């Protein structure tokens, strides 16, 4: 038998962009025939709140990575 709500509620604060604008740069030294335009979002403002698991992919367990320090508080 599978029970609904097996995971405990997550009370995790997350921050994300609220408003963005897009900027485009030309990448140097592209081969002929390659579009050098690179477009990316730039955050204009942020919003922080509790992560809503019904509409977001909230991380329940800390992701271990050799590129991140073990203690993120420092």
TrEMBL record:
Sample GO molecular function, one term: hormone activity
SUPFAM superfamilies: Cystine-knot cytokines
Keyword Disulfide bond: yes
Gene3D superfamilies, per the entry: Cystine-knot cytokines
A Pfam family recorded for this sequence: Cys_knot
Record-annotated Glycoprotein hormone subunit beta domain positions: 8-66
GO biological process per UniProt: G protein-coupled receptor signaling pathway
Localization terms from the record: Secreted
Main location: secreted
GO cellular component: cytoplasm; extracellular space
Keyword Disulfide bond: yes
Domain of life (superkingdom): Eukaryota
Record's keyword terms, sorted: Disulfide bond, Hormone, Secreted
InterPro entries referenced in this protein's UniProt entry, alphabetically: Cystine-knot_cytokine (IPR029034), Glyco_hormone_CN (IPR006208), Gonadotropin_bsu (IPR001545)
Family: Belongs to the glycoprotein hormones subunit beta family.
Record PANTHER family: GLYCOPROTEIN HORMONE BETA CHAIN, LUTROPIN SUBUNIT BETA
Entry protein name: Glycoprotein hormone subunit beta domain-containing protein
Annotated organism of origin: Chelonoidis abingdonii
């Amino acid at each position: 038998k599978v029970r609904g709500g097996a995971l405990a509620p997550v009370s995790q604060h997350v921050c994300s962009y609220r408003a963005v604008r897009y900027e485009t740069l030309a990448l140097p030294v592209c081969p002929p025939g390659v579009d050098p335009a690179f477009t990316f979002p730039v955050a204009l403002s942020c919003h922080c709140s509790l992560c809503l698991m019904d509409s977001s992919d909230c991380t329940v367990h800390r992701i271990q990575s050799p590129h991140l320090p073990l203690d993120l508080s420092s």
